[in-house]
Amino acid sequence: MPETTPKGLARLAFGGDYNPEQWPESVWQEDVRLMREAGVTMVSAGIFSWALLEPERGRYDFGWLDRLLDLLHAHGIRVDLGTPTVVPPVWFYREHPEALPVTADGVRYEFGSRGAICPSNTDYRAAAANITTRLAERYADHPALAMWHVHNEYGVPVSACYCDSCAAHFRRWLETTYGTVEAVNEAWGTAFWGQRYTGFAQINPPRTTPTVGNPAQALDYRRFADATLRENFRMERDILHRLSPGVPVTTNFMTALSQCDSIDYWAWGREVDIVTNDHYLITDGRRTHVNLAMAADLTRSVAGGAPWILLEHSTSGVNWQPRNPAKAPGQMARNSLAHVARGSEGAMFFQWRQSRRGAEKFHSAMVPHGGTGTRVWREVVELGASLDSLSAIRGTRTQADVAVLWDWHSWWAQNLDWRPSEDHDARERADAFYEALYDRHLTVDFAHPEADLSAYPLVVVPALYLLTEAAGRNLTQYVENGGTLVVSYFSGIVDEHDAVHEGGYPGPLRDVLGLTVEEFSPLLKGDTLRVTGPGGTELTGDVWSEFVVPDGAETVWTYADGLTAGRPAVTRHRLGEGTAWYVSTRLDAHGLDALLGRAAEDARIAPRADLPHDVEVVRRTGESGSYLFAINHSPSDAKVPLEAHGTELLTGERAAGRLAVPAGTVRVVRLDG
After folding, report:
1. Neighbours of 502 (CB within 10 A)
2. At CB < 8 A and 24+ separation, what contacts does 204-211 make?
3. 318, 367 contact by CB (below 8 A)
């Protein structure tokens, strides 16, 4: 079995991407001295270095990397060593211009950025296998090597290529997947608009067409593109496993839903030895710490609940948003330790030293342009000390209260053209439901719709437009066995081929929800409607409404106006030992809280009203003990109740009763017993 923790790393991972090729070698000694001062335990290296390692085809220069790894090892710093296959050298593209990817519009990209790769190109694959082999043969036994880092952020910025090589590869994939062209015709519904094929050779990628193309074809191309990237990863991984046994292999994910929508991370999580993730705050006026928590929970879930590693985030501002504000004093530590609370075995950054040149020179770093006299540097040193004091948590697991279902294939299908309303956004609903659970102080696991859900008293389905029959049976069994299910509108509509389920909406969920949806009734932009219910409560919906016909479900809230006035808006259905809720409009935060409050009662989840707003409390447990993280994102001091005495690890103080958590700070208590 491959190793699942960085080799030789005895503490939490702390450090960042180290790109010393951007600097004179005389700077390296200063770098390692500062790394020791900051408490750095591991750095990522070599990720963008192919042009330096192989400056001409077949001519290699490993001397500088030898010296770098030796230097890092001499100072006790472990290395996450990259295969530099995300940016082939310019000589490669001049020899093989067809390796540059082509857009759906037929435009071929040019060299000069990163990730400009046709993933089906055989010359690229051969060159990538060669440089990976050379690295593995040279460094497999290097004492600094902690793990291998394949490529970089697969799917960013190019997730799919539409060239002739990819067309041929797509046809082979279809033949392997479906067996016959008749099966493809059936899956894609090609009887519509006369799109029927009589041979695989007639099929092309879903390139630009005069109007909307075949949605099932577009969905399968998403799957093909994702599978092709995984093929490339597995090729490199298998070389590394063969030549460098005992050293874990990873690639850095980007699970935050807003940052990479082209990768099925459920599938990728099964391919890596250690799940690692990159996360950057989307500073658009929302509560960034909620999205951070969501990304961390999703990453942990992709890892199957096992510890994972935050391989990149920023010390302060990033460089790629329209507006890039700095992080507030103390925010870097809160962000970092929030990831740790939710399962990360450390906090790594992009990058170690801030670049002077290139596209990311205004991206913050551990050593900023201003050097060691800056606030950022002081906070980096403080964070290194904090992480060192938390070493005992290694190997413990974050404890979740509820599950949220998510499926990348459903998201891909939902985002295809010509849906009932462009205002409905599956990712927005996932965000909204997650935030409502976060504000009820419930820790979330994400789960695939066909996964075992028996451990969770409450399961939330914010938006699952595509739902298989197997998933429908799974959710029905979950409720029958005593679970509480909450389903939002426009779920269970199509099968895995984007074909509408027979028998009416919401397909495989009709029985478990005890209802049928006769018709969708999306609202015009800006329109709202009132929803009335128990005790005269009034909620507000927008974007969507439906004509719901109960078939065993009871009506809890009713539409008070609009086309659906007088009809059910929110229903509750008892089935077996459990309960299923359905909400047929887009509720705001107040409405979601009311709905989830009722569902939590059914699930026998006690309210946590004693916890202050924007103070997240998360627990990690394992053989070394039980650890309570309290993270105060608010501007006010807070107190958090403790169920047992313990020791606060960041200050060394004893804690009992109510734990004081000053504004903007983090406290971590190792509970006694």
Report:
1. 7
2. 204/167, 204/170, 205/104, 205/160, 205/162, 205/166, 205/167, 205/170, 206/104, 206/162, 207/104, 207/105, 207/106, 207/162, 208/104, 208/105, 208/106
3. no
Could you give the CA distance from residue 368 to residue 377 in angstroms, rounded to a whole number?
7
Residue 322 makes CB contacts below 8 A (sequence gap 6+) with none
Contact predicate 144/32, CB 8 Å: no
Q: Please write down the long-range contacts of 49-56, taking CB distance under 8 Å and 24 or more positions apart.
A: 49/21, 49/82, 49/84, 50/84, 50/85, 50/87, 50/88, 50/89, 50/131, 51/87, 51/89, 51/90, 52/21, 53/84, 53/131, 53/134, 53/135, 54/89, 54/131, 54/134, 55/89, 55/91, 56/91
Count of other CB atoms within 10 angstroms of residue 248: 21
Within 139-298, strands assigned E span 145-150, 249-250, 252-253, 276-278
Predicted TM-score (pTM) of the model is 0.97
**Alpha carbon distance 80, 46 (integer Å):** 9
Helices (runs of H) and strands (runs of E) counted in the chain:
17, 29
What's residue 257's pLDDT? 62
* Contacts with 268 (C-beta within 8 Å, 6 or more apart), sequence order: 154, 230, 233, 251, 253, 302
- The radius of gyration computed from the CA coordinates of the chain, to the nearest angstrom, equals 26
CA distance linking residue 83 with residue 151, whole number of Å: 6
Closest CA to 243 of 127, 122, 148: 148
**Residue-range domains of the chain with CATH:** 13-162+205-398 (3.20.20.80), 402-602 (3.40.50.880), 615-671 (2.60.40.1180)
Query: Which helix (H) or strand (E) segment is 182 a member of?
Result: helix 181-188
Query: Alpha helices of 488-609 — where are they, by DSSP H?
Result: 510-513, 589-602
Q: Which amino acid is at 616?
A: E
The CA distance from 481 to 464, in Å, is 22
Q: For residue 2, give the nearest of 237, 310, 344 by alpha carbon.
A: 237
Which helix (H) or strand (E) segment holds residue 654: the answer is strand 654-655
Assess contact for 583 and 433: CB atoms under 8 A.
no
Q: b/e map of 25-58 (b: 16 or more CB within 10 Å)?
A: eeebeebbebbeebbbbbbbbbbbbbbbbbeeee
Question: Which residues does the annotation mark as catalytic?
Answer: 153, 312
What tens digit of pLDDT does each residue of 381-439 get? Answer: 999 999 999 999 999 999 999 999 999 999 999 999 999 999 999 999 999 999 999 99
Nearest to 465 by CA among 522, 545, 547, 410: 410
* CB atoms inside a 10 Å sphere around CB 503: 9
Q: Give the residues across from 561 on adjacent strands.
A: none
User: Read out DSSP for 147-160?
Assistant: EEEESSSTTSS---
Residues 272-311 pLDDT 10s: 999 999 999 988 877 999 999 999 999 999 999 999 999 9
Say which residues have a Cβ less than 8 Å from residue 217's Cβ, sequence separation at least 6.
Answer: 188, 206
Residues 638-649, mean pLDDT to the nearest whole number: 96
Cis before 157? omega within 30: yes
Closest C-alpha among 165, 202, 157 to residue 184 = 202
d(CA 579, CA 480): 8
Report pLDDT digits (tens) over 319-363: 999 999 999 999 999 999 999 999 999 999 999 999 999 999 999
Which residue type sits at 667?
Answer: R
Token pair of 589, please? 């935060």
Nearest to 215 by CA among 375, 364, 419: 419
- Secondary structure (3-state) at 574: strand
